[in-house]
Amino acid sequence: MSRLTSSRRxxxxxxxxxxxxxxTGPVDAKEELLGECESIWKQMEECQSKLMLLGxxxxxxxxxxxxxxxxxxxxxxxxxxxxxxxxxxIISTNPDALLELGxxxxxxxxxxxxxxxxxxxxxxxQLEEDLKREQQWYEEQKQMLDTLNKIEEEAxxxxxxxxxTKSLKVREFNELKSKILKLKTYKKKxxxxxxxxxxxxxxxxxxxxxxxxxxxxxxxxxxxxxxxDILEMLINKLMTTPHEPYITINESFWPPYIELLLRCxxxxxxxxxxxxxxxxxFHK
Length: 284
Known about the structure:
Layout: H1 2-19, H2 27-54, H3 61-85, H4 95-161, H5 165-201, H6 207-212, H7 227-240, E1 247-248, H8 255-263, E2 267-269, E3 276-279
Antiparallel strand pairs: 1-3, 2-3
Helix pairs in contact: 1-2
């Protein structure tokens, strides 16, 4: 087993030697190291041959497994004792070969450390950028908090100087209520005056005339609505649904009233449907 261990070291030495073959080390050191590796390799082959011969012995089927386990246990025991008492062995005693191997190992360590240093620098740079963003966010939040505190102080100062909000709201509500009542009274007066004017100058046709103009196939005459009712319908439609201010003209609308509103420019027909009209938007 010690020779197998030596063969492993020999293989490792051969790998290291193959890495330094392109270096400028002394030729004698390389040849000496190659010779030692070849010698260890021959010893390993001899041990392998002996093991193969030992393995050819026939055993009973019932004892084969136990014998293999015993051999493995003995081999592991011997190997364990050798590892406990052995001392580190040097691959070669030639100082030139050892120097070249040491340089190679130091170069590997240097490359690994450079890679670690690069990774650490990259991580530090990322952490610095994150720290800058966090500091900027902190400053923005601090400025926002200061602004809100100033606004709160100003609001508290104004609240102390002015009368109570409740009394102010009550006074404003009463004033608004009074204005609404005045507007409703004024609206009633306007509608009353409009009705008197329209009833005097634009009355509905006589009932007899309405009966003569009706469709003979209908059973009874259609009840016509006044011009005031038509105007109120147009005004309410325009105020409640300004996006759809058109009303539909039906049989209760007297045609002369419709013609009057259209000719005076008070109403407009729908561009696509002549049976619909709207009030002219004088308030715009």
